[in-house]
What does this fold into?
Amino acid sequence: MDIDKVFKALADPGRRHLLDLLHKENGQTLSALCERMDMTRQAVTQHLQLLEEANLVATVRRGREKLHYLNPVPLHEIYERWIEKFERNRLGTLHNLKRRLEAHDDDKA
Amino acid sequence: MTTTKPDFVYVTYIATTPEKLWQALVDTDVTRQYWIGPNATDPGHVNVSEWTPGSQWEHQRLDDARTVDIVGTVVESTPPRRLVLSWARPNEADDASKHSRVTFDVEPLGDALIRLTVTHEDLASDPKMLSGISGGWPQILSNLKTFLETGRALPR
It folds into this structure.
């Protein structure tokens, strides 16, 4: 898998928002995602296409519906590449501290 | 083909053949090489079964007692393309309402490239299993890819 595609896909706030929506609720249809996005259906379709090409979104057909899933496998590979195992605990502590301090603004964190 | 909505869908591309991927799914000695969780104290796991439809399978921890952490039935086995397993805690093995289902789909994309799709469904009634699994699969698939592409066992 081309890692450049992953970073390019992540470099757009609209596409990151789509990933956030799938993280909140996995397996959504295009129509459900469009309702939560402030852009045209065509634009959402194109963003999803780029995310799928980067393997950040996986799709499954159920009957007539196409469901979209957040596929975290490429992100996990990035994580493994640069975050050493022994750093996990310290980073976890830092992350928890940040979350606690920013609790009033959690959704934007 | 089931009609329920999957809880998770994971996709990874691996530079290998469907046959090697299949062996990695069903050969106990190979499963040992990549069923290792993110926790450094995790002794790893192996999967043990005859892998024929209807047979039982066990997800055994590699401790002295070989603790069985997950059990299930082989629902479908179509080498080297599709493996479907039911998935349950050992103490809930007799209660089908507590079972979830895992599907491995292997799709060849060229000479030595496959797409592996892992689908996990019917987890909704079990939030604890759901949260454990959502962290677990990306790790296992990443390990599996590294193992098949480099041929190296993972450090533990």
